[in-house]
Amino acid sequence: MRDIILAGNWKMHKTIKESKELAVCLTKKFVGLPLNVIIFPNFTALYSISELLKGTNINVGGQNVYFENEGAFTGEISPIMLKGAGAKYVIVGHSERRNIFNEPDELIKKKIRSVIENEMEVILCVGEKLEERDAGRTEEVISKEIRIALDGISREVLDHIIIAYEPVWAIGTGVTACPNETAEIHKFIRSILDDMFGSGVGADMTILYGGSIKPKNFREFAILDEIDGGLVGGASLKCEDFYDIGKILVECKKL
């Protein structure tokens, strides 16, 4: 069943003090808003933010994870640790992990399984680079990323996965994709899921858009039926901007 979601990826920003201040502002803004809101603070702030947000309509998640629960993996964080810190969601396959840290599809596949086994939800990010788009390889790239990541996943497990389409060339660049083209790519993603898991499965999958989302441009995406919400980067660091995006989503989806 598709859900309408507003997710904010804070990336490597905010001290613990600054994170708490932003979270407090968000709780005041979003109270009573009929929307599934998820924020992804940095690891040092995750526990304190999850405690602060208890009893609110805002959930927290981890920006990344390793697939082992413990071991000699210096600098990594396990799903058990994230869950213990209050995470209910985990971002897997973000383009910055794929491209800066060279994470391959097979590693992303392992991470997804580990998160699901530890009873958290996955936000799987997929998307093409500019050179791949210019070469007409968008569908090829996205299909490969999804098919490897979800290979062997059962239909039941799929209910715990959300897909975020994030064209790499639009992340943090100020450039947004064309809304109608984005909707077509979301349709294509649903067709991949139908092919993998059976007819009609894609129609039930929650698919978000991410890529330089701001209050001034998000309405063009939110009004489209194929787009179930947004994974927001920089604008999620500003309480007023993130709230304005949430209001737009509620209005466009008639929640």
Q: Which CATH first-tier class would you pick?
A: Alpha Beta
Low-confidence stretches: none
Reported by name, the CATH topology is TIM Barrel
Overall CATH architecture = Alpha-Beta Barrel
Strand order, main sheet: write it out: 7-6-5-4-3-2-1-8
Number of helices: 11
- Tell me the total number of β-strands: 8
**Overall mean confidence score, pLDDT:** 97
Strand content: 5-15%
CA-CA gap between termini:
15 Å
State the CATH superfamily name.
Aldolase class I
Elements, N to C (H/E) = EHEHEHEHHEHHHEHEHEH
Tally of distinct domains: 1
**Shape annotation:** globular
Describe the main β-sheet briefly. 8 strands, parallel
Task: Produce a short descriptive summary.
The protein is of the alpha/beta class. The chain is built from 11 helices and 8 strands.
Plain-language structure description:
α1 (16-30) packs parallel to α2, α7 packs across α9 (179-197) and α10 runs parallel beside α11. The chain has an 8-stranded parallel β-sheet. By secondary structure, the chain is of the alpha/beta class. It has one domain: TIM Barrel, CATH 3.20.20. It has 11 helices and 8 strands. The mean pLDDT is 97. α2 (43-52) links the parallel β2 and β3 (58-62). It is globular, with a radius of gyration of 17 Å.
Describe how the helices and strands are arranged.
Blueprint (H helix, E strand, L loop, with lengths): L4 E5 L6 H15 L5 E5 L2 H10 L5 E5 L16 H6 L4 E4 L2 H5 L5 H13 L3 E6 L3 H5 L3 H12 L5 H4 L2 E5 L13 H19 L9 E3 L5 H8 L6 E4 L6 H15 L2
Parallel strand pairs: 1-2, 1-8, 2-3, 3-4, 4-5, 5-6, 6-7
Helix pairs in contact: 1-2, 1-11, 5-7, 7-9, 10-11
